[in-house]
Amino acid sequence: ALDTLMVGKLTTESLFILLAILTGLSNGSLENQLCFDLIEKWVKKNPNASICTALEGVENFKHIANFQDYHGLKEFRQEVAKLMGKARGGRVTFDPERIVMSGGATGASETIMFCLADPGDAFLVPTPYYPAFNRDLRWRTGVQIIPVQCSSSNNFTVTREAVEAAYQKAQEANINVKGLIITNPSNPLGTTLDSQTLQSLVIFVNDKTIHLVCDEIYAATVFSSPEFVSIAEIIQEIDVNRDLIHILYSLSKDMGLPGFRVGIVYSYNDVVLSCGRRMSSFGLVSSQTQYFLATLLSDDEFVDYFLRESSKRLARRHHKLTRGLEQVGIKCLKSNAGLFVWMDLRRLLEDPTSFDAEMKLWRTIVNDVKLNVSPGSSFHVAEPGWFRVCFANMDEF
Amino acid sequence: ALDILMVGKHTTVTLFHPTQNPEGVIQMGLAENQLCFNLIHEWLLKNPEASICTAQGAAEFRDIAIFQDHHGLAEFREAVAKFMGKVRRNRASFDPDRIVMSGGATGAHEMIAFCLADPGDAFLVPTPYYPGFDRDLRWRTGVKLIPVVCESSNDYQITIEALEAAYETAQEADIRVKGLLITNPSNPLGPIITKDTLEALVTFTNHKNIHLVCDEIYAGYRLHQPEFTSIAEIIEEDKICCNRDLIHIIYQLTQDMGFPGFRVGIVYSYNDAVVSCARKMSSFGLVSSQTQYLIASMLADDEFVDKFIVESRKRLAMRHSFFTQRLAQVGINCLKSNAGLFVWMDLRRLLKEQTFEAEMVLWRVIINEIKLNVSPGSSFHCSEPGWFRVCFANRTNS
After folding, report:
1. d(CA A303, CA B101)
2. What residues does the Aminotransferase class I/classII large domain cover (chain B) (predicted)?
3. How many CB pairs under 8 A join A and B?
């Protein structure tokens, strides 16, 4: 039996019972599995999307199987550019000539680092951040990460002051800061940055002549207001040196296709594009996959429907989870995007200042409740007690 | 639109097309194998469930589309391991758990360099060698390449003297040599490395305690005697003293099956620490799960694979023979070769003078006036001017 600890009106026991009920919504992995039924239906209706189908596709097999041009299939780039525009409500358009492939989002993050920084250089990264940045941004590149601490006191908003402070500290330590990376919508928070914040960050990087890399891989997972604002929109509004602006994208989250390894680097800087394109040889998207996706994404009616439906299902799932947690007094950070919520279990810690207490609570959740959630410390958050819970990795029931 | 080809750094030409551009340049500069697509077409039509995008295969779509485990699909690794064995006439067997994916051979070369060497370290590489090595092994890794000069006077055999000389040069320059990279069968030359030479190379690297990386991506292209010996056979024979932790094989399905677009690069290492490191690095260039699935199905079909390998060899041999005989008829010799998708053509007699400048002049004539895209020896770091690589498998018979 679990140890019973009274915390206000809530016992850990009842929390865990609730969470156990909610396991029907989550198995811990960060995937978007909500809309496979839509894609499967489409696949069956569109045999021409595969190079392996009789009559329609196989004639293209030879040409596609041979295609290894690191520019990528033109149709693939055009359709990805179009999708990126749709995910931003048509408020901006993207140039297919600025799309560079990479080995999944993992490859995209690493590639942009290789392009922008030398070993020893640093990038500022607001916390909490995606744990694998430690590997993707640093491992083979030799680049350093300087965390910009954000706090729950203002809902983890990235402030210009915090970024300035981190930048100054790096300067004093003689570290060469090459840029700032933001993830918008945020992993693990599930929130989007507002226009004002984005503008202030753009002005900051422009002032310091450092790069701004915007990881927008969750762009189409926005399911409620406020509306998503992309960096692409901000640079239309204010005057900035566009050579400093770069976007990372992928089809892993928005479309739920992580196995296909579709990573995209989109840069407004021609030199970076050229370098990134040559580097993409190390992780091109399989031409078989490029071909399939080009066909899938060219079906406007399908894509529009998919994006709408995906949003709807995410909203429903998010609502179910957050309402359920609320009913037992557990709050989550208010969020409007992503495939997860940022759950506040600070009240349940034996010692609210201790990360050891957080790990103890985490082990109980994982081992006794058998629910795989991710402890805040793995995201480099400054305060213990926060946990990320994914809600989109099991299909609709 | 016509296909445009970049030739050298500054010239573009349009590619030949029988109806749309009969004045275009014929592409013989790309080492591709396009001879056996009809066999593959046939197989695909008979096996629709091999694709997750057909009505028959769509039930697997979800599981495959979310699969991003850097170990790769078990069926994929098993099928590739079996295929690698078959291509070596089953004289060696391969362990699926030692197979690590990478972004094509390009990614495989880079990944092995990252795993084995630090910035500033060096690999010895016999010349002439594949130009892509300069980028793949050095660019982002900071690793150096030290050429081991091989010459036409002894048919470009790699000699221990040349190896020792290159190794000495590195020592004197205070450069740490981490390994030797060989391509067997050779690109651009074509021929295989003999078993005796291979054993000597293993002894050399073992003695110096440096790695031996064997790029065997053309293993499937043995045309006729003498037989290809894979480094895997030397290891399995266990005749000579060898620390297996120093042995690694680079492979890809690009050449043997004719699928460069699918980016199926493989690093096979006998060293557990390298396998573990490489596997983590493979996240930067995994093979698309959609493609893993297709390849797994195709290569699991023993009957098809056996037929394909035999037929592919037959067609290559015919093409190779047709080519070299016709060249011989006009007095042009090629390096005697028994493998590969290309020949190493000797045009030294046609050079105005025995210089690389004269080689480039001749090359431009071949491109612009004869309309053939071939690759000049200097691009492969060949030490002597006048040699050209010509690919003969990248067009169908028509």
Report:
1. 31
2. 26-397
3. 171
pLDDT digits (tens, 9 = 90+) for A270-328: 999 999 999 999 999 999 999 999 999 999 999 999 999 999 999 999 998 898 888 88
Strand, coil or helix: A299: coil
d(CA A274, CA A282): 14
Instruction: Give the Å distances, CA to CA, from A36 to A285, A289, A299, A382.
Output: 21, 17, 16, 37
A45 in a structural domain: no
**Is A150 a domain residue?**
yes
One domain, residues A274 and A131 = yes
Mean pLDDT of B112-140: 97
Query: What is residue A295's DSSP assignment?
Result: H
Number of neighbours of residue A370 by Cβ within 10 angstroms? 13
Distance CA A200, CA A205 (A): 9
* Contact present, B178 and B121 (Cβ < 8 Å): yes
Answer whether A324's CB lies under 8 Å from A18's CB: yes
The residue from A268, A301, A334 where one domain ends is A301
Residues A265, A161 within the same domain: yes
Nearest residue to A370 (alpha-carbon basis) of A14, A21, A4: A21
Residue in the block written with tokens 């040559």: A278
Selected from 2.160.20.10, 3.90.1150.10, 3.40.30.10, 3.90.226.10, the CATH number assigned to the domain covering B1-38+304-391 reads 3.90.1150.10
Q: Count other C-beta atoms under 10 Å from residue B110's C-beta.
A: 30
Q: State pLDDT tens for residues A193-229.
A: 999 999 999 999 999 999 999 999 999 999 999 999 9
In angstroms, what separates the C-alpha of B37 from chain A's closest C-alpha? 6
Catalytic annotation on A130? yes
Rg value, chain A, Cα:
22
Q: Which stretch of DSSP H or E encloses residue B101? A: strand B99-103
Instruction: Scan residues 99-118 of A and list those with Cβ closer than 8 Å to B.
Output: 103-104, 106-107, 110, 114
CATH class of B60-302: alpha beta
Q: How many folded domains does chain A comprise?
A: 2
Determine the distance in angstroms separating the CA of B106 from the nearest CA of chain A, rounded to an integer: 6
Whether A88 and A177 share a structural domain: yes
Domain assignment present for residue A58? The answer is: yes
The Cβ of residue A202 has, within 10 Å, a number of other Cβ atoms equal to: 23
By CA distance, what is B280's nearest residue in A?
A135
Residues of A in contact with B281 (CB under 8 A): 140
Please give the helix or strand (H or E) that residue B212 lies within, else none.
Answer: strand B211-215
- Predicted confidence (pLDDT) per residue in B322-343, tens digit: 888 999 999 999 998 877 788 9
What is the domain extent for residue A335? 12-37+308-390
Please state, in angstroms and rounded to a whole number, the distance separating the CA atoms of residues A288 and A200: 42
The ipTM, to two decimals, is: 0.91
Measure the CA dihedral A103/A106/A111/A113, to 10°: 180
**R_g of chain B, CA atoms, integer Å:** 21
| Those residues with Cβ within 8 angstroms of residue B32's Cβ, 6 or more apart along the chain or in another chain | A66, B255, B258, B260, B341, B391, B393, B394
CATH number of the domain where residue A281 is located: 3.40.640.10
Identify any residues that bridge with A183 across adjacent strands, giving them in sequence order: A215
Q: Is B266 helix (H, G, I), strand (E, B) or coil?
A: strand
Which residues partner with A148 through β-bridges?
Answer: A126
The answer to whether the CB atoms of B104 and A288 lie below 8 A apart is no
Same domain for A214 and A251?
yes
Beta strands, E only, A113-235: 122-126, 144-148, 177-183, 211-215
Distance between first and last Cα of chain A: 30
Q: Could you tell me how far CA B191 lies from the centroid of its own chain?
A: 12
Residue A349: give its domain's CATH number.
3.90.1150.10
Residue ranges of domains in chain B: 1-38+304-391, 60-302
Q: Please answer whether residues A36 and B65 qualify as being in contact, where contact means their C-beta atoms are separated by less than 8 angstroms.
A: yes
Are A314 and A258 in the same domain? Answer: no
Among A261, A279, A301, the domain-final residue is A301
